[in-house]
Amino acid sequence: MDDRRRTPLWLCALTLMLGFSGPAAGAPVAGEARFDGIWEGVITYRPAEMEIEALVELGFDPDGELVGTTDISTLHMKFYHLDRVIPEGRQITFDFLYDSERHGPNSRFIFSGELDEAGEMIRGEFTDGDKQHPFFLRRTGDAGDPRKPRVELPVTVLSDTWAALRDRFNREVEDVRLVMLLSPR
Amino acid sequence: MQRHVLNRLEDPRLQTYVVWGPMLDKETEDDARSATSHVGDARSTHFWTPDHAIAEAFQGPLGLELERAWDTFLLYEPGVRWDDTPPTPTYFMHVGKRLPEEQKFNGDKLREAAQRMLDASTAAAVD
Predict the structure, then answer these.
(1) First vs last Cα of chain B: how many Å apart?
(2) Does A49 contact B at CB distance below 8 Å?
(3) Which of A94, A133, B48, B77 sits 20 to 30 Å CA-CA off A54?
C-alpha cells in the first residue's frame, strides 16, 4: 500500500478524551442537527459487486469544532484523520487525504451528505477522483464509544491434499455448498 | 458477500467454505484469521493455504487457462462430490478473470443462484 497519513496518537487522545467527553462550546442545541457520534455504513461503488464498509467517528474539539476519524478496512484505515469536517444545517461534508495509486499523493476523498429528519442516517455522495458514489452512514454510537470487537473465527491450515476441505465438502454432500477462494488482503 | 448473500439467505442447508490464500504472494495466516470477521456467518468454515496449489487445481474446472482461480465463488448443488480432483461447480462467479462477463461477481446474482439450488433441493425432497 502507498504511504498513508495516520492520525497522530496525540490527536486521537486529545479528541477522544477531551473533545468527545461531552458537549462543548459550539455543540448543537436541542433541535439542531447533531452530527457527533459513531456512524457506520457503506459506500457503493457498484451495487452488490463492490461495496466498501466505512465507519466515521465525529466529535467536538475543545473549541467546539467538529473533528473526526474514519475506519475503512479495505484500505487498512483505522482512526484515520479527517482533514475537514464542515457542517451546514443538515448538510455535512468531511474528507480525508490519502496517497492514491490512481489519483496521486494526498488525494482528497470527500463524503458529502445530509442528515435525515430522525437524525440517525446520513446519505450522500462519496467523491473518489472524478467519480461520485452513493453512501449511507447510520448512527451506531456516541463519540468515544469503544469500537465493536471484530470476531475472528478459527482457521484450519490445509494440508497439501486439502483433506480437511474435501472431507467437509463430501460430508455435507446433501447441502448446497459455496466454496470461495479469496485473498485476505 | 456477507451482506448480499449470507445475511439474506438464512437456509441452514447452505454451507460456506472460505479458502484464504496468498493470491498476492504476501498474505499470511494472520491475515486470514483477521479476514474471517468479514465472513462471520455460522455456516462458514475457514481454511488457510500457504501456496497456490488449490487455486491452480481449480483452473481446469473453471476453464481458466492462464489465471489461478483466486477470487472465485463456486456453488455446488447437493450430490456433487469431490473425489480425486476438485469438482466442476454447478455455477460460479469470478472477479477480474478472462471469463464471461455475465459471471462477474455480483452478490445478488450469486444469492439468486444459491436460492434456486436450495429451492430445487426442496422440490426434490418433496417429490
Answers:
(1) 32
(2) yes
(3) B48
Interacting residues of A21 by C-beta distance below 8 A, sequence separation 6+ = A144
Q: Which residues lie across from A43 on neighbouring strands?
A: A52, A135
- Mark yes or no for CB contact A177/B34 under 8 Å: no
Residue-wise pLDDT tens digits, A6-49: 444 444 444 444 444 444 444 555 567 899 999 999 999 999 99
Q: pLDDT digits over B86-105, tens only?
A: 999 999 999 999 999 999 99
Question: What are residue A158's phi and psi, to 5 degrees?
Answer: -75, 140
Q: Position A54: which residue type?
A: A
Q: Which of A6, A26, A5 is nearest to A85 (CA)?
A: A26
Bin A102: left if φ > 0, else alpha if -120 < ψ < 50, else beta: alpha
Residue with cell 474528507: A95
CB A149 within 8 A of CB A134: no
C-alpha cell at A154: 478459527
Cβ of residue A161 closer than 8 Å to a chain B Cβ: no
- Which of A3, A137, A121, A152 has its CA nearest to residue A70? A137
Question: For chain B, what percentages of helix, strand and coil (3-state, to nearest 5) are there?
Answer: 40, 15, 45
The SS3 call for residue B67 is coil
The reported pTM is 0.81
